[in-house]
Design a protein that fits this description.
Blueprint lengths: L1 H28 L2 H11 L12 E2 L2 E2 L5 H15 L2 H24 L7 H8 L18 H6 L14 H19 L2 H10 L1 H11 L11 H18 L19 E6 L4 E2 H7 L4 H7 L7 E2 L7 E6 L6 H4 L13
Antiparallel strand pairs: 1-2, 3-6, 4-5
Helix pairs in contact: 3-10, 4-7, 5-10, 7-8, 8-9, 8-10
Length: 325
Amino acid sequence: MKKLSIIAIVLASLAIAGEAFIFSTRKENNSEETHERAIRSGYHIYAPSIPDTLYFCGERVPLNIFYVREGLDRELVSNMYYQSHTLFCIKRASRVFPTIERILKEERVPEDMKYLCVIESALQNVTSSAGAGGYWQFMKSTGQKYGLEISDEIDMRNDLEASTRAACRYLKELKQRFGGWTEAAAAYNCGENGLGRRLANQQQHSYYDLHLNQETQRYVYRILALKLIMQHPTAYGYTVRQCDTYPELRYEEVSLSGKDVDLVQFAIDNGTTYKMLRMFNPWLVTDKLKNKNGNTYTVRIPIKKGTEYTTLTKGKHDTTVIETL
Protein backbone atom coordinates (compact mmCIF):
# COMPACT_ATOMS: atom_id res chain seq x y z
CA MET A 1 0.00 0.00 0.00
CA LYS A 2 2.83 2.37 0.96
CA LYS A 3 4.57 1.46 -2.28
CA LEU A 4 1.48 2.39 -4.31
CA SER A 5 1.23 5.75 -2.54
CA ILE A 6 4.84 6.53 -3.42
CA ILE A 7 4.19 5.64 -7.08
CA ALA A 8 1.10 7.84 -7.10
CA ILE A 9 3.06 10.74 -5.64
CA VAL A 10 5.80 10.30 -8.24
CA LEU A 11 3.28 10.20 -11.11
CA ALA A 12 1.50 13.28 -9.79
CA SER A 13 4.80 15.12 -9.53
CA LEU A 14 5.68 14.19 -13.11
CA ALA A 15 2.28 15.36 -14.32
CA ILE A 16 2.68 18.71 -12.57
CA ALA A 17 6.19 19.11 -13.97
CA GLY A 18 4.93 18.24 -17.44
CA GLU A 19 2.18 20.83 -17.24
CA ALA A 20 4.66 23.40 -16.03
CA PHE A 21 6.99 22.56 -18.92
CA ILE A 22 4.17 22.79 -21.49
CA PHE A 23 2.96 26.08 -20.02
CA SER A 24 6.49 27.43 -20.04
CA THR A 25 6.97 26.32 -23.66
CA ARG A 26 3.68 27.86 -24.74
CA LYS A 27 4.57 31.06 -22.98
CA GLU A 28 7.95 31.10 -24.67
CA ASN A 29 6.38 30.36 -28.10
CA ASN A 30 3.85 33.12 -27.60
CA SER A 31 6.35 35.71 -26.44
CA GLU A 32 6.95 38.76 -28.61
CA GLU A 33 10.63 37.96 -28.87
CA THR A 34 9.98 34.46 -30.25
CA HIS A 35 7.31 35.78 -32.59
CA GLU A 36 9.56 38.47 -34.00
CA ARG A 37 12.45 36.02 -34.35
CA ALA A 38 10.24 33.64 -36.34
CA ILE A 39 9.19 36.45 -38.67
CA ARG A 40 12.78 37.57 -39.22
CA SER A 41 13.98 34.08 -39.98
CA GLY A 42 11.10 32.75 -42.06
CA TYR A 43 9.24 35.63 -43.73
CA HIS A 44 10.75 38.18 -46.08
CA ILE A 45 9.22 41.11 -47.92
CA TYR A 46 11.55 42.88 -50.31
CA ALA A 47 11.28 46.42 -51.61
CA PRO A 48 11.44 46.38 -55.43
CA SER A 49 14.39 47.85 -57.26
CA ILE A 50 13.81 51.09 -59.15
CA PRO A 51 16.12 51.78 -62.10
CA ASP A 52 18.09 55.01 -62.26
CA THR A 53 16.91 55.64 -65.81
CA LEU A 54 13.61 54.64 -67.40
CA TYR A 55 11.94 55.44 -70.73
CA PHE A 56 8.37 55.03 -71.93
CA CYS A 57 7.85 55.06 -75.70
CA GLY A 58 11.23 56.75 -76.02
CA GLU A 59 10.29 59.50 -73.56
CA ARG A 60 12.37 59.81 -70.42
CA VAL A 61 10.55 59.32 -67.12
CA PRO A 62 11.61 62.10 -64.68
CA LEU A 63 12.58 59.82 -61.80
CA ASN A 64 14.53 62.69 -60.24
CA ILE A 65 11.17 64.13 -59.08
CA PHE A 66 10.30 62.56 -55.74
CA TYR A 67 6.61 61.98 -56.43
CA VAL A 68 7.38 60.35 -59.79
CA ARG A 69 9.80 57.91 -58.17
CA GLU A 70 7.37 57.21 -55.33
CA GLY A 71 4.46 56.84 -57.74
CA LEU A 72 6.39 54.20 -59.67
CA ASP A 73 7.43 52.54 -56.41
CA ARG A 74 3.80 52.25 -55.33
CA GLU A 75 2.81 50.47 -58.53
CA LEU A 76 5.86 48.21 -58.46
CA VAL A 77 5.03 47.09 -54.92
CA SER A 78 1.33 46.65 -55.72
CA ASN A 79 1.92 44.56 -58.85
CA MET A 80 5.01 42.70 -57.63
CA TYR A 81 2.97 41.39 -54.70
CA TYR A 82 -0.24 40.87 -56.69
CA GLN A 83 1.36 37.58 -57.62
CA SER A 84 -1.47 35.60 -59.22
CA HIS A 85 -2.60 38.49 -61.42
CA THR A 86 0.90 39.42 -62.57
CA LEU A 87 1.89 35.81 -63.15
CA PHE A 88 -1.10 35.28 -65.43
CA CYS A 89 -0.16 38.42 -67.37
CA ILE A 90 3.30 36.97 -67.96
CA LYS A 91 1.83 33.63 -69.02
CA ARG A 92 -0.71 35.18 -71.43
CA ALA A 93 1.84 37.51 -72.99
CA SER A 94 3.48 34.69 -74.94
CA ARG A 95 0.19 34.10 -76.73
CA VAL A 96 -0.96 37.70 -77.19
CA PHE A 97 2.16 39.87 -77.52
CA PRO A 98 3.38 38.56 -80.90
CA THR A 99 0.18 39.78 -82.59
CA ILE A 100 0.14 43.09 -80.71
CA GLU A 101 3.84 43.74 -81.41
CA ARG A 102 3.40 43.06 -85.12
CA ILE A 103 0.47 45.46 -85.42
CA LEU A 104 2.12 48.19 -83.32
CA LYS A 105 5.12 48.02 -85.64
CA GLU A 106 2.96 48.13 -88.76
CA GLU A 107 1.00 51.10 -87.37
CA ARG A 108 4.19 52.89 -86.20
CA VAL A 109 3.14 52.99 -82.57
CA PRO A 110 5.85 52.37 -79.94
CA GLU A 111 6.05 48.81 -78.67
CA ASP A 112 5.74 49.98 -75.06
CA MET A 113 2.03 50.54 -75.69
CA LYS A 114 1.52 46.79 -75.37
CA TYR A 115 1.81 47.29 -71.62
CA LEU A 116 -1.17 49.66 -71.77
CA CYS A 117 -3.14 46.65 -73.00
CA VAL A 118 -1.82 44.67 -70.02
CA ILE A 119 -3.18 47.08 -67.45
CA GLU A 120 -6.44 47.61 -69.33
CA SER A 121 -7.49 43.96 -69.52
CA ALA A 122 -4.70 41.70 -68.22
CA LEU A 123 -4.50 40.51 -71.86
CA GLN A 124 -7.94 38.94 -71.96
CA ASN A 125 -11.44 39.72 -73.17
CA VAL A 126 -13.26 41.27 -70.24
CA THR A 127 -16.12 43.73 -69.82
CA SER A 128 -15.93 46.46 -67.20
CA SER A 129 -18.78 47.62 -65.01
CA ALA A 130 -18.92 50.76 -67.18
CA GLY A 131 -19.37 48.68 -70.34
CA ALA A 132 -15.85 48.92 -71.77
CA GLY A 133 -14.97 45.68 -73.51
CA GLY A 134 -12.24 43.62 -75.09
CA TYR A 135 -8.47 43.56 -74.85
CA TRP A 136 -8.18 47.35 -75.17
CA GLN A 137 -11.32 48.18 -73.17
CA PHE A 138 -13.16 50.27 -75.73
CA MET A 139 -16.50 51.82 -74.90
CA LYS A 140 -19.04 51.00 -77.60
CA SER A 141 -19.15 54.51 -79.07
CA THR A 142 -15.36 54.86 -79.15
CA GLY A 143 -14.91 51.43 -80.67
CA GLN A 144 -17.38 52.20 -83.44
CA LYS A 145 -15.71 55.56 -84.04
CA TYR A 146 -12.46 53.75 -84.79
CA GLY A 147 -14.00 51.20 -87.11
CA LEU A 148 -15.04 48.28 -84.89
CA GLU A 149 -18.29 46.50 -85.65
CA ILE A 150 -20.27 46.19 -82.43
CA SER A 151 -23.79 44.74 -82.40
CA ASP A 152 -25.89 42.11 -80.68
CA GLU A 153 -24.19 39.46 -82.84
CA ILE A 154 -20.69 40.77 -83.45
CA ASP A 155 -18.30 42.55 -81.08
CA MET A 156 -14.98 43.27 -82.70
CA ARG A 157 -13.66 44.73 -79.45
CA ASN A 158 -13.03 41.07 -78.62
CA ASP A 159 -10.94 40.47 -81.74
CA LEU A 160 -7.28 41.00 -80.91
CA GLU A 161 -6.18 42.16 -84.35
CA ALA A 162 -9.10 44.47 -85.08
CA SER A 163 -9.11 46.05 -81.62
CA THR A 164 -5.34 46.55 -81.63
CA ARG A 165 -5.52 48.41 -84.93
CA ALA A 166 -8.34 50.54 -83.56
CA ALA A 167 -6.30 51.29 -80.43
CA CYS A 168 -3.36 52.32 -82.63
CA ARG A 169 -5.51 54.77 -84.57
CA TYR A 170 -6.84 56.24 -81.33
CA LEU A 171 -3.41 56.52 -79.70
CA LYS A 172 -1.92 58.20 -82.77
CA GLU A 173 -4.68 60.81 -82.72
CA LEU A 174 -4.06 61.41 -79.02
CA LYS A 175 -0.32 61.73 -79.65
CA GLN A 176 -0.94 64.26 -82.40
CA ARG A 177 -3.18 66.34 -80.12
CA PHE A 178 -1.05 66.30 -76.97
CA GLY A 179 2.43 65.99 -78.43
CA GLY A 180 3.69 63.04 -76.34
CA TRP A 181 3.02 59.33 -76.04
CA THR A 182 2.91 59.62 -72.24
CA GLU A 183 0.07 62.13 -72.47
CA ALA A 184 -1.62 59.96 -75.12
CA ALA A 185 -1.60 57.04 -72.68
CA ALA A 186 -3.05 59.21 -69.92
CA ALA A 187 -5.77 60.50 -72.25
CA TYR A 188 -6.60 56.91 -73.19
CA ASN A 189 -7.60 56.50 -69.55
CA CYS A 190 -9.38 59.77 -68.70
CA GLY A 191 -10.47 60.86 -72.17
CA GLU A 192 -8.96 63.43 -74.48
CA ASN A 193 -11.29 66.19 -73.33
CA GLY A 194 -10.61 65.38 -69.68
CA LEU A 195 -6.85 65.55 -70.10
CA GLY A 196 -7.05 68.60 -72.34
CA ARG A 197 -9.12 70.45 -69.76
CA ARG A 198 -6.68 69.66 -66.95
CA LEU A 199 -3.66 70.69 -69.00
CA ALA A 200 -5.31 73.99 -69.84
CA ASN A 201 -6.61 74.69 -66.34
CA GLN A 202 -3.27 73.94 -64.68
CA GLN A 203 -1.23 75.58 -67.46
CA GLN A 204 1.02 72.55 -67.88
CA HIS A 205 2.20 70.40 -70.78
CA SER A 206 3.41 67.20 -69.11
CA TYR A 207 1.44 64.37 -67.53
CA TYR A 208 3.96 64.26 -64.70
CA ASP A 209 3.21 67.88 -63.74
CA LEU A 210 -0.57 67.46 -63.51
CA HIS A 211 -2.78 67.03 -60.48
CA LEU A 212 -5.21 64.32 -61.62
CA ASN A 213 -7.87 62.00 -60.31
CA GLN A 214 -6.48 58.99 -58.47
CA GLU A 215 -7.00 56.49 -61.30
CA THR A 216 -5.32 58.57 -63.98
CA GLN A 217 -2.64 59.71 -61.52
CA ARG A 218 -1.59 56.07 -61.14
CA TYR A 219 -2.24 54.99 -64.72
CA VAL A 220 1.09 55.64 -66.45
CA TYR A 221 3.03 54.46 -63.39
CA ARG A 222 1.11 51.20 -63.54
CA ILE A 223 2.09 50.79 -67.19
CA LEU A 224 5.72 51.43 -66.27
CA ALA A 225 5.59 48.94 -63.40
CA LEU A 226 4.22 46.17 -65.59
CA LYS A 227 6.83 46.96 -68.22
CA LEU A 228 9.63 46.54 -65.67
CA ILE A 229 8.22 43.39 -64.12
CA MET A 230 7.38 41.69 -67.43
CA GLN A 231 10.71 42.60 -69.02
CA HIS A 232 12.71 41.46 -65.98
CA PRO A 233 10.50 38.98 -64.09
CA THR A 234 13.31 37.29 -62.19
CA ALA A 235 14.42 40.65 -60.76
CA TYR A 236 10.98 40.98 -59.20
CA GLY A 237 10.64 37.44 -57.90
CA TYR A 238 8.96 35.65 -60.81
CA THR A 239 10.44 32.45 -62.18
CA VAL A 240 8.56 31.56 -65.36
CA ARG A 241 9.86 28.89 -67.70
CA GLN A 242 9.08 28.84 -71.40
CA CYS A 243 6.95 25.75 -70.87
CA ASP A 244 4.86 27.61 -68.26
CA THR A 245 3.62 30.19 -70.74
CA TYR A 246 0.58 29.95 -73.00
CA PRO A 247 1.54 29.24 -76.61
CA GLU A 248 0.09 30.86 -79.70
CA LEU A 249 -2.87 28.92 -81.08
CA ARG A 250 -2.68 27.25 -84.47
CA TYR A 251 -5.59 27.78 -86.81
CA GLU A 252 -6.77 27.95 -90.39
CA GLU A 253 -9.14 30.53 -91.81
CA VAL A 254 -12.49 29.92 -93.50
CA SER A 255 -15.20 32.25 -94.73
CA LEU A 256 -18.50 32.72 -92.93
CA SER A 257 -21.36 34.25 -94.90
CA GLY A 258 -25.06 33.97 -95.47
CA LYS A 259 -28.04 34.76 -93.27
CA ASP A 260 -29.50 32.92 -90.29
CA VAL A 261 -26.37 30.85 -89.79
CA ASP A 262 -26.47 28.25 -87.02
CA LEU A 263 -22.99 28.60 -85.57
CA VAL A 264 -23.20 25.30 -83.68
CA GLN A 265 -23.79 23.48 -86.95
CA PHE A 266 -21.22 25.67 -88.72
CA ALA A 267 -18.62 24.57 -86.18
CA ILE A 268 -19.50 20.89 -86.57
CA ASP A 269 -19.43 21.16 -90.38
CA ASN A 270 -15.91 22.56 -90.08
CA GLY A 271 -14.64 19.77 -87.86
CA THR A 272 -14.69 21.56 -84.52
CA THR A 273 -17.02 22.43 -81.64
CA TYR A 274 -19.00 25.55 -80.83
CA LYS A 275 -16.82 26.01 -77.74
CA MET A 276 -13.65 25.99 -79.87
CA LEU A 277 -15.27 28.30 -82.43
CA ARG A 278 -16.02 30.86 -79.72
CA MET A 279 -12.56 30.54 -78.16
CA PHE A 280 -10.83 31.16 -81.49
CA ASN A 281 -13.34 33.86 -82.50
CA PRO A 282 -14.44 35.64 -79.32
CA TRP A 283 -15.98 38.43 -81.41
CA LEU A 284 -18.88 36.05 -82.16
CA VAL A 285 -21.29 36.68 -79.29
CA THR A 286 -24.33 34.53 -80.16
CA ASP A 287 -24.95 30.99 -81.38
CA LYS A 288 -27.10 32.25 -84.27
CA LEU A 289 -25.92 34.78 -86.84
CA LYS A 290 -28.80 36.59 -88.55
CA ASN A 291 -26.33 38.68 -90.58
CA LYS A 292 -29.04 40.91 -92.08
CA ASN A 293 -26.46 42.93 -94.03
CA GLY A 294 -25.06 39.80 -95.67
CA ASN A 295 -21.48 40.43 -94.54
CA THR A 296 -18.68 37.94 -95.09
CA TYR A 297 -16.43 37.23 -92.12
CA THR A 298 -13.10 35.46 -91.83
CA VAL A 299 -13.33 32.83 -89.09
CA ARG A 300 -10.52 30.95 -87.41
CA ILE A 301 -10.87 27.20 -87.11
CA PRO A 302 -8.42 25.28 -84.91
CA ILE A 303 -6.25 22.85 -86.80
CA LYS A 304 -7.74 19.48 -85.98
CA LYS A 305 -4.71 18.25 -84.01
CA GLY A 306 -4.76 21.58 -82.18
CA THR A 307 -7.62 20.46 -79.97
CA GLU A 308 -4.99 18.82 -77.78
CA TYR A 309 -2.97 21.19 -75.68
CA THR A 310 0.29 19.30 -76.14
CA THR A 311 0.22 19.88 -79.89
CA LEU A 312 -0.18 23.60 -79.33
CA THR A 313 2.81 23.91 -77.03
CA LYS A 314 6.14 24.88 -78.48
CA GLY A 315 9.10 23.67 -76.49
CA LYS A 316 6.97 21.74 -74.01
CA HIS A 317 9.98 20.63 -72.02
CA ASP A 318 11.94 23.86 -72.40
CA THR A 319 12.95 25.09 -68.95
CA THR A 320 14.42 28.35 -70.22
CA VAL A 321 13.35 31.19 -67.94
CA ILE A 322 11.46 34.00 -69.67
CA GLU A 323 13.36 37.24 -69.14
CA THR A 324 12.02 39.68 -71.73
CA LEU A 325 8.45 40.07 -72.90
